[in-house]
Amino acid sequence: MQMGKCLNCGREGFRLKTRKCLHCGKDCCEHCTLFVLKIGMYDKWACSARCRQEFEQQVLTLPLGDIGTELDSKFESCAREYWYDACTAALSANDETHGSWMRLLAGQGKNYAMHVMETSDISSDGKNRNDLRQRFQARALAQLASNIERAGRPLAAAIIYEKNLKMYDKARQLREKEKQVFVRQTMISVDLNSLLQQIRTEGIVAVYRCPNCGGNLKINRESTTSALQVCAHCGKEIHAVDLADFLKTVLS
Q1: Helix ranges, the chain (H)
Q2: 113 plus 230 within the same structural domain
Q3: Count of domains forming the chain
Q4: Residues 19, 106 within the same domain
Q5: Looking at residue 163, what is its pLDDT?
Q6: Backbone phi, then psi, for 232, in 5-degree steps?
Q7: What is the pLDDT of residues 64-111, one digit of tens each?
Q8: Are residues 9 and 119 in the same domain?
Q9: Is residue 237 part of a domain?
Q10: How does pLDDT run across 104-133, given as a tens digit for each residue?
Q11: Residues 124 and 219 grouped into a single domain
Q12: In a domain, 141, yes or no
């Protein structure tokens, strides 16, 4: 039997199995590795905590691009693609796995390449499985929730923060904010109706200038709240709070 020696930790043994570190390329044995990434038939190891952290940082900072605004099969497919891209992009350009992945992409296309090159990760002691992948998935979900929130659907985003990310405080904040907006809109609506009633009672005619196009909107005893919500000239929305402030000035 052939005696082998690990150049990283100095361990010796018969047929000692070694691999190149997935970050720095140094040879290391299975006894001193901290992390294993399996891409297809290849096992990738990290020789130190620093190399593991730097590799993980590269994976977790890959730009996600357009992850969408729906938690559906399209999102799952997109997140999976980004996971493969992140893992292979973090490898050095001369790594055998990186070269294999690039050849598969060029020759067979992405769907086939992802099908035959199954990717997983596991700690060297076998206790922590899918830790990096779970963190990457959480990042994709957080980006999705952020997109949904920006799209004006805070309650839908709150569900993802609560159910998928276990970010209960964030979910509560979104729900409370939405509740405050609803209460404020209700109060403004009641206030506006009251002001219009005063306009009718006192027979006042006021002219409101649309903040979008500058068009004049006549407000008199015939005016209704619904009719004043949209400018008759440009068709854009008129905010009730701005209209209420204007009428308060007229009636003061």
Answers
A1: 49-60, 73-89, 96-108, 110-116, 131-150, 154-163, 168-202, 240-251
A2: no
A3: 2
A4: yes
A5: 94
A6: -70, -15
A7: 878 999 999 999 989 988 998 898 888 877 788 888 888 888 888 888
A8: yes
A9: yes
A10: 888 888 888 888 887 877 766 666 666 888
A11: no
A12: no
Each residue of 43-61: pLDDT tens digit?
A: 888 888 888 889 999 999 9
pTM, rounded to two decimals: 0.67
Query: Are 205 and 117 in a shared domain?
Result: no
Q: Which domain holds residue 8?
A: 3-128
SS3 (DSSP) at 216: strand
Query: Is residue 48 in some structural domain?
Result: yes
Q: Note the pLDDT tens digit of each residue in 122-181.
A: 766 666 666 888 899 999 999 999 999 999 898 899 999 999 999 999 999 888 887 765
3-state SS of 108-139 is HCHHHHHHHCCEEEECCCCCCECHHHHHHHHH
Q: With beta carbons less than 8 A apart as the criterion, state whether 208 and 192 touch.
A: no
Q: Which structure tokens are listed for 226?
A: 């619904």
In a domain, 145, yes or no: no
Is 145:154 a contact under the CB 8 Å cutoff?
A: no
CA–CA distance, 55 with 109 (Å, rounded to integer) = 25
Q: Which 3 state secondary structure label does DSSP give 44?
A: strand
